[in-house]
Amino acid sequence: MPSTDEELVARSMGGDLDSFNQLVLRWERPIYALAYRVIGREEDARDVCQETFLRAFRALKGFKGQAKFSSWLYRITLNLCRDWIRRERRQPIAQAPEGVDLIELASEATPSESIEELVARREIGRAVARVMAELPDEQRTAIILKEYHGLTFQEIADLLDCPLSTVKTRLYQGLTVLRKQLAREGLPGAARGPWK
Fold this sequence. Notes:
mainly alpha, Arc Repressor Mutant, subunit A, about 200 residues, Rna Polymerase Sigma Factor, Chain: A
């Protein structure tokens, strides 16, 4: 039976590098995905992912276990992403979640999916990415954590260190703007959220 995060963290704190490597293997993809969705650039997301684990390793002795290890990693990642955006003075490129691949090739379409359906999915993906990039950072972050990463409202509140009601408000406002803008662009089906 695989070890829990808590067990691996405890062994890592005791100097077991293999346990920390297991944590890296377990959380590398979700952390990269989060960085990529916030920043929108593969190479920079890889750098943020590496820096997240480097910082986590250096600060492991200070990890008190008050939050889940994954939430702690998410917090480090989001802080690094914000630093990157500030440093680069760029607007992040919001990426469409799984199922709406912006560079999907027609050959990847399922046999039951027509070319028209594939084109419609691409249009929805582009529209979602465009609208997400225009949202305020707080709303975009709430949507990414809830809709793309499946965190609960409480986990997001703990991660962002804000009240539960604030998280719900940010998510509601962001999704409302997203739905209205997608409907305005003539994509009412997208407004219901098949991008998830």
